């Protein structure tokens, strides 16, 4: 049809050029833009409170570019004109009324609308407010200057997972990409639709089956134990919970998002950490565990994967997470359960074998393993070390000592490590003794940590979890009660974008060919014991 509008000679020339392109570039794909959203014009309302003049409005506008703007200014993507919009509405529309942005480089990133006007932009009858933003979801109504002056209905043309969670959750959160996955569930990046704040949502399936048998990691009692601990703890160095949704099929735990990633990833990226940086991070870990013990809680699964960093900077808060294996204990109570990640298990846990008792000192041993890994970048105990079995290595406290890796580490750091990895519980160093150890006495580090903790305490305010229940029907018509445990709070804190779930599936540290292959000579590698 286009060629019919051209002179014969021009049409012939165009056909020749097209023919040449077809032959010379047979494998060149045509560019097809991604239409990530669509703005449908609102129809004429019975009340007459619509934006468009008569029926001259376009049916819809495709959203292709990362940003769409609307207003009276000529540089807007959609310029409000008198021949389309009613004059009494135009006079109240700002030069820049609102913008809609979407980060196309981020998978499953939501569309964000920002109000740039003085007279207001509204989504589903709620005013956004100048300079504020909110997440746009499918079928959201956009109005300008007044809630009844509806101009568009937004259609999300990209895949999202809103229908994969209970309605109580999808009403409040936009479900984005998967951050991590493990044996007891997965973690999703989610956005609060009103504030656009990012969170990590941990999803624990209640009836997951493994090889035809129930996965005990998802035992309802274990799940509620984790929730109860989250309700009880409030500390700057412990991950905070936004709210919990308890449905028939799964538990959804919304947690603060940690932008700095796991301690494990920081270690593997750098090979090992300096003593100064280790001292800064380790002090926070010890304070967090000391707080847990003061509340009668033993973590029992401390490892670098369960230590998260708030930011990518060196001056970052440390956050302890994953309480799936934690347990409340009384002042004179002990634990018997055989649990935790084998590489970080204390010897008394192995000796107990689910029969004998052990106490909160097991966390000190795990801290010692973390301390070891931070300083030298390899594991003290591993099944890959063939001289002894992993169990025998731990029971005897015979850790792999590489002279090449420990050469640059101070004597005081080595002595502290040795005291934490002491097999005899009554001889093992305590948390208070760790804080008072000579290696920990760095005035600059103490001040930096105290400033971080004090600032976070002021920012977070007082928080309390509240519980409510709602009942909804699923697509099969089955009623499902969703219990919602919310935080009543003035301040929020934030799981890592590289978060991994709570189950004991250990990652391996591989730093240096000598450690990976374990073929060092006796002059550079040896087993050391506290005996």
Automatic annotation (TrEMBL):
Single Gene Ontology MF annotation: ATP binding
Superkingdom as given in the UniProt entry: Eukaryota
Pfam families: FHA (PF00498), Pkinase (PF00069)
Composition skew (Polar residues), residue ranges: 522-531
Coiled coil: none
Keywords: ATP-binding, Nucleotide-binding
InterPro entries per record: FHA_dom, Kinase-like_dom_sf, Prot_kinase_dom, Ser/Thr_kinase_AS, SMAD_FHA_dom_sf
Disordered, as annotated region: 1-25, 512-531
Ranges for domain FHA: 68-128
SUPFAM superfamilies with a match to the protein in the record: Protein kinase-like (PK-like) (SSF56112), SMAD/FHA domain (SSF49879)
All residue ranges annotated as the Protein kinase domain in the record: 173-440
PANTHER family given in the database record: SERINE/THREONINE-PROTEIN KINASE
Protein name (database record): Ovarian-specific serine/threonine-protein kinase Lok-like
Organism, scientific name: Trichoplusia ni (Cabbage looper)
């Amino acid at each position: 049809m286009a060629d019919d509008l051209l002179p014969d000679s021009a049409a012939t020339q165009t056909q020749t050029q097209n023919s040449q392109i077809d032959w010379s570039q047979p494998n060149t794909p045509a560019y097809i833009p991604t239409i990530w959203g669509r703005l449908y014009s609102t129809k004429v309302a019975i009340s007459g409170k619509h934006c468009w003049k008569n029926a001259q409005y376009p049916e819809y506008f495709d959203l292709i570019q990362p940003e769409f703007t609307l207003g009276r200014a000529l540089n807007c993507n959609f310029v409000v004109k008198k021949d389309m919009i009613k004059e009494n509405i135009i006079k109240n529309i700002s030069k820049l009324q609102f913008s809609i942005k979407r980060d196309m480089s981020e998978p499953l990133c939501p569309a964000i609308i920002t109000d740039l006007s003085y007279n207001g932009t509204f989504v589903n009858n709620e005013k956004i407010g100048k300079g504020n933003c909110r997440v746009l979801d499918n079928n959201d109504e956009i109005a300008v200057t007044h809630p009844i002056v509806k101009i568009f209905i937004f259609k999300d043309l990209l895949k999202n997972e809103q229908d994969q969670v209970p309605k109580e959750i999808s009403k409040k959160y936009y479900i984005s990409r998967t951050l991590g996955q493990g044996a007891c569930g997965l973690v999703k990046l989610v956005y609060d639709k009103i504030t656009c704040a990012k969170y990590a949502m941990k999803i624990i399936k209640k009836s997951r089956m493994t090889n035809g048998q129930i996965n005990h990691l998802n035992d309802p009692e274990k799940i509620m134990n984790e929730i109860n601990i989250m309700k009880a703890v409030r500390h700057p160095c412990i991950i905070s919970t936004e709210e919990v949704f308890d449905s028939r099929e799964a538990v959804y735990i919304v947690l603060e998002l940690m932008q700095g990633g796991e301690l494990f990833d920081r270690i593997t990226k750098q090979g090992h950490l300096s003593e100064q940086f280790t001292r800064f991070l380790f002090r926070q870990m010890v304070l967090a565990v000391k707080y847990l013990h003061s509340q009668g809680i033993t973590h029992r699964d401390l490892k670098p994967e369960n230590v998260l960093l708030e930011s990518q900077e060196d001056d970052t808060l440390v956050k302890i997470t994953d309480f799936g294996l934690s347990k409340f204990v009384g002042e004179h109570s002990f634990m018997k359960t055989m649990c935790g990640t084998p590489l970080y298990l204390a010897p008394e846990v192995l000796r107990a074998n689910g029969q004998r008792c052990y106490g909160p000192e097991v966390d000190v041993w795990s801290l010692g393993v973390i301390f070891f890994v931070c300083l030298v970048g390899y594991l003290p105990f591993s099944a890959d070390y063939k001289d002894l079995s992993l169990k025998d290595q731990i029971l005897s406290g015979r850790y792999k000592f590489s002279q090449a890796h420990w050469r640059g580490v101070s004597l005081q750091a080595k002595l502290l490590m040795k005291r934490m990895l002491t097999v005899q519980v009554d001889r093992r160093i305590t948390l208070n003794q760790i804080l008072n150890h000579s290696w920990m006495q760095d005035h600059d580090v103490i001040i930096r940590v105290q400033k971080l903790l004090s600032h976070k305490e002021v920012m977070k305010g007082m928080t309390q979890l509240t519980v409510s229940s709602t009942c909804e029907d699923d697509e099969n018509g089955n009623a499902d009660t969703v219990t919602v445990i919310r935080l009543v709070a003035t301040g929020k804190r934030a799981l890592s974008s590289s978060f991994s779930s709570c189950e004991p599936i250990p990652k391996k540290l591989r730093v240096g060919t000598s450690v990976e292959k374990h073929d060092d000579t006796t002059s550079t590698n040896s087993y050391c014991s506290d005996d």
